[in-house]
Each structure stands twice: as structure tokens, then as C-alpha cells.
Design goal:
Blueprint (H helix, E strand, L loop, with lengths): L9 H15 L5 H18 L7 H5 L1 H5 L15 E5 L7 H7 L5 E5 L3 H13 L6 E4 L3 H7 L4 E7 L4 H11 E11 L7 H6 L10 E4 L7 E6 L7 H5 L2
Parallel strand pairs: 1-2, 1-4, 2-3, 4-5
Antiparallel strand pairs: 5-7, 6-7
Helix pairs in contact: 2-5, 7-8
């Protein structure tokens, strides 16, 4: 397979695709491979003009950042409505849209206009409009307009667990889950999370390891069907 106009060789792409198949337990289609390459090419080209990902992310795009989306796939029910908060350059939302089977309905939420325009260009070029929507708006505004309509909310590099939970809670239906990609210091955020009022809307956090490399994890927060104290209040 020939590599496109990126810093990555065909051998590097083959290694990335093989690792993806190992993590997901299923083969990639030729279109998925092509879409991943074209998306990466567009991401790196746009990143030359404005900041979408940092230098270390460019260097580790195939060996880490594309791979980080894979462990999220088992947490997405068939035909789930998924919101990607602060989608930025499309990690993980674009990768999830390319790789999910059957395709998920993914909403990329990005308040910075030039980043949202990049995401829309990717959606157009890769013909993903049947499964992906882009909104150039803040998550707070979307939470008011589309309350309790999403099965899953995902985020990466959005900020603290508390901040992400506050944005995700209005969007999630009861029983839905907020899935957060976190790095090695994720445990440091749990004390702040448990003190925050928003934590009472969710079950206790569950931590899932990603792949073998690095210290990254998925923190899973399932929204309670009934908020804390709801039963007591209804009986008063």
C-alpha cells in the first residue's frame, strides 16, 4: 500500500493498520485504510497553518493518537448517538466515524470556527455526511438545545473530569455514558470530581486500560437513571 503525502512510510502505515486490527479484533476494509490515510494527510496539512495537534502528536499520530480511538468502539452500542466534545482536529471523533461498524451517528462539537471548518472539510472529502455532523458552537449551547438526546459523549484533551462531566451531563440520556480519554495523571482528578455537584448525576467512575503502550485510560461515567436524592425528594 502506497503512503500518501505524509511523513509516514508505507511500512509505518502497515504497522498502524495491523495494530488497529489487533486491538479491534477485525480486519480493516480498503476504504477504512484509505480514509485514515486521507484524513491524516488533511490533518497534517491543515496543522501547518493553524494549531490542531502539537508536535509530539504529529510524531506519534500512527503509533498512538489514531490508535487511542479503537478501545472506545466496544463502548458504542449499534446506531448510538455520539457527541465528541471539543473535537479539535477530529481525534477521536473522525476516527470513530471511519472505523465503527455499523456506522455510528457522531456529532463533532467544536467552538473554534477554523477547526470546525476543517472538520467539515474532512466530512465532505471522505463522504461521511451520512454519519457525521459538525457544529461550530459551544457544548453549553448544545446542551440546552439537545438535552438528553445522546447515548454516548466522548472527549479527549478537553480539560478536567469535572469540567467535561458538566458539559456532558445535559447531553446524555439517563443510562448513557461519558467516555473520557485520559493520560497518566487521571487519578489526580478523582478527588475534585467527587467533590463536584455534577458527580451526583453519575455512577462511580470506572477506569479501563487502552492498549499496551503508555499509561492512557478510558474513564467511563454512566449517568444515573435517577439523580441522587430523587427518591427521598419524591416521598416528601
Amino acid at each position: 500500500m502506497d503512503s500518501l503525502a505524509t511523513p509516514f512510510t508505507a511500512t509505518a502505515w502497515q504497522a498502524c493498520f495491523a495494530r488497529m486490527e489487533q486491538i479491534s479484533g477485525r480486519p480493516l476494509t480498503s476504504r477504512q485504510c484509505s480514509d485514515l490515510q486521507q484524513y491524516s494527510q488533511m490533518l497534517l496539512e491543515a496543522n501547518r497553518h493553524f494549531n490542531l495537534i502539537g508536535p509530539s502528536a504529529v510524531e506519534n499520530l500512527l503509533s498512538r493518537h489514531l490508535l487511542d480511538a479503537l478501545p472506545l468502539l466496544p463502548f458504542l452500542p449499534p446506531k448510538a448517538r455520539v457527541a465528541d466534545l471539543g473535537s479539535g482536529g477530529g481525534l477521536p471523533g473522525i476516527v470513530l466515524a471511519i472505523l465503527s461498524q455499523p456506522p455510528q451517528r457522531i456529532h463533532l462539537i467544536e467552538s473554534i470556527g477554523k477547526k470546525a471548518r476543517f472538520l467539515q472539510e474532512v466530512v465532505t472529502q471522505l463522504a461521511l455526511s451520512d454519519r457525521v455532523r459538525v457544529s461550530a458552537q459551544r457544548a453549553e449551547a448544545l446542551g440546552a438545545a439537545e438535552k438528553k438526546t445522546y447515548d454516548r459523549v466522548v472527549s479527549r484533551a478537553l480539560g478536567s473530569l469535572r469540567y467535561g462531566g458538566e458539559l456532558a451531563a445535559p447531553l446524555l440520556r439517563p443510562g448513557g455514558a461519558y467516555l473520557v480519554l485520559k493520560g497518566r495523571n487521571h487519578a489526580d482528578e478523582f478527588a475534585e470530581w467527587r467533590r463536584a455537584p455534577v458527580s451526583r448525576l453519575f455512577q462511580e467512575p470506572v477506569v479501563h486500560a487502552l492498549h499496551d503502550e503508555g499509561d492512557s485510560v478510558i474513564v467511563q461515567l454512566i449517568k444515573k437513571v435517577r439523580p441522587a436524592n430523587a427518591g427521598r425528594q419524591s416521598n416528601q
